[in-house]
Amino acid sequence: MLELALHILDIVENSVRAGATLVRILIRESRSKDLFLMRITDNGRGMTREEREKALDPFYTTKKVRRVGLGLPMLADAAERTGGRMTLRSRPNTGTVVSAAFGLTHIDRQPLGDIASTLIALIVGNPGSDFIYRHETDGRVYLLDTRDIKKALEDVPLSHPEVTGFLREHIAEGLTDIGAAA
């Protein structure tokens, strides 16, 4: 995966497959600490210790369409190449937290990529789940919470073309306003 947004997409899709109805995505950038942190927290079914160990094995997957599960191992490698690391915490019936820290300015840090399209794909493709996206840049914050949007729209689905267009613009403007890194 060439962009961190694609790692986010992969992890969140796994969360939804694991029954998550609420997924929190946090991006924290700190120029003073040279840190780029991403954390995905879900309320899905969680994993046992054995399942966590298997999830970090690139030759294990629960998916039927491919034989390897490269998502978390590739994220761990991407973080380690920048002097950072990835952690996986999970408990059965509680949920899972995947965190990855990167050197913000490290030459090998993958770009965030098209996070707006990633968020739109997650929101439209998973109407039964809610998403909270929080992006912090040196104390400035952009927040998107689909629960609030659904409440404001009442019966209009988030997949409506005017809504997705609005969301795309809202995300792009919000990230520009806080000076988010690419």
Task: Report a brief summary of the structure.
The chain has 6 helices and 6 strands; from the N terminus they run αββααββαββαα. The protein is 37% helix and 26% strand.
The end-to-end span amounts to 15 Å
Q: What profile does the largest beta sheet have?
A: 6 strands, mixed
- Structural class comes to alpha+beta
Helices and strands, in order, run as HEEHHEEHEEHH
Indicate the overall shape: globular
Count up the helices: 6
Beta-strand segment tally: 6
Q: Spans with pLDDT under 50 lasting ≥5 residues?
A: none
Helical percentage? 25-40%
Rounded to the nearest angstrom, the radius of gyration is: 16 Å
Average pLDDT number: 92
Strand order of the largest sheet: 3-4-2-1-5-6
Q: DSSP strand (E) fraction?
A: 25-35%
Would you spell out the secondary-structure blueprint of this structure?
Blueprint: H1 4-17, E1 22-30, E2 35-42, H2 49-55, H3 71-80, E3 85-91, E4 95-103, H4 115-125, E5 130-137, E6 140-145, H5 146-153, H6 161-178
Parallel strand pairs: 1-5
Antiparallel strand pairs: 1-2, 2-4, 3-4, 5-6
Helix pairs in contact: 1-4, 4-6
Detailed description of the structure:
With 182 residues, the protein is α+β, with helices and mostly antiparallel strands. The protein has six helices and six strands; from the N terminus they run H-E-E-H-H-E-E-H-E-E-H-H. The model has no long low-confidence stretch (mean pLDDT 92).
Features:
37% helix, alpha+beta, six-stranded mixed sheet
